[in-house]
Amino acid sequence: MLQVQHLSFGYTTNPILKDISFSAQAGDYIAVIGESGSGKSTLLKLIYGEYDLDSGNLSWNNEAILGPKYNLVVGTDFMKYVAQEFELMPFISVEENIGKFLSNFFPDEKKERTAALLEVVELTAFAKTKVKLLSGGQKQRVALARALAKAPEIILLDEPFSHIDNFKKQSLRRNVFEYLKKQNITCIVATHDKEDVLGFADRILVLDHAKIIADNTPENLYKAPETALIASFFSEFSVINETFIYAHQLHVVAHSPLKAIITNSYFKGAYYLHRADINGNSVLFEHPSSITIGESVCLQITKPE
Ligand SMILES: Nc1ncnc2c1ncn2[C@@H]1O[C@H](COP(=O)(O)OP(=O)(O)OP(=O)(O)O)[C@@H](O)[C@H]1O
């Protein structure tokens, strides 16, 4: 179990994280979200032992995780960290990079494991390609596979799919998160992308102003977002009667007291997103077709149970 107790840290006298506490069980997937600069990457680096805490404690299965003041070499075998910049060996092949830290005493096992991981990150066809010839997204996938090669107990992923195109992203996410669950590997993911979270994460930690402002399941946070920051992570929304209403929860109906005048219409593929004005307040709603700017419509809220 990962335990983070009353962690506080700043690179300078300015605190980046204040009194952060949470825990994660074996196999848990915890997503860390928050605005750019809120300290998501810093939290992962601290868990990895890259910096010394100003105060608080970190431990994995009751063994303290210590910073550079107490630990000459950063990192341990049980924990892997895949950063936004990935350090790979450019002049050797993809499979050599992945197998780099696997023992040559067990060649069959090494081959099997490398092949399985190549499949997880969908790079089997590139096994023999030198890493320097790969795109940014492909390199990110090699870094991920290499981190998984030695079967860590916990993995820290910083924006793990940020460089990967939309065609690949969906199936890769499924492969990687299913693999981590199956192997019972704890995973802490810093992300801006709700697609990395919904359907996969067990819990979301929300960082804001150096604190955890929410620690809950994706479902609970989605259904009852307590702040605009949380609602905005999931979808476009409006504030109506001091409640956050997602754009898809606001519908055009024949009659209702909520009368709105369309101010903008955006094509979004399966639907149009409209901006409208209700007595000087701007709202957003989805509609299957485009509505002319200046037209008046009646809106109704439908919230989930
Ligand atoms: N090495 C460093 N030295 C000094 N300040 C730093 C350092 N790394 C990050 N910071 C500062 O710490 C704060 C938190 O940065 P961090 O990278 O943890 O945020 P983040 O939430 O991961 O952001 P992003 O979503 O943009 O990656 C920022 O204000 C950043 O400028």
Write down the domain tally: 2
Q: Oligomeric state of the chains?
A: single chain
Q: Which ranges are low-confidence, i.e. pLDDT below 50, for 5 or more consecutive residues?
A: none
- How many angstroms does the end-to-end distance come to? 34 Å
Largest sheet entry:
6 strands, mixed
Portion of residues within helices: 10-25%
List all distinct small molecules, including ions and cofactors, that are bound in this structure: adenosine-5'-triphosphate
Q: For this structure, what is the CATH homologous superfamily of the largest domain? A: P-loop containing nucleotide triphosphate hydrolases
CATH topology of the largest domain, by name, is: Rossmann fold
Order of helices and strands: EEEHEEEHHHEHEEEHHEEEEEEE
- What is the mean pLDDT? 93
Structural class based on helices, strands and sheet pairing: alpha+beta
Count of runs of 4 or more consecutive helical residues: 7
CATH class of the largest domain: Alpha Beta
CATH architecture of the largest domain: 3-Layer(aba) Sandwich
Instruction: Name the shape in a single word.
Output: globular
The beta-strand count equals 17
Strand content: 25-35%
Lateral arrangement of strands in the main beta sheet: 6-7-8-3-9-10
Radius of gyration from CA coordinates: 23 Å
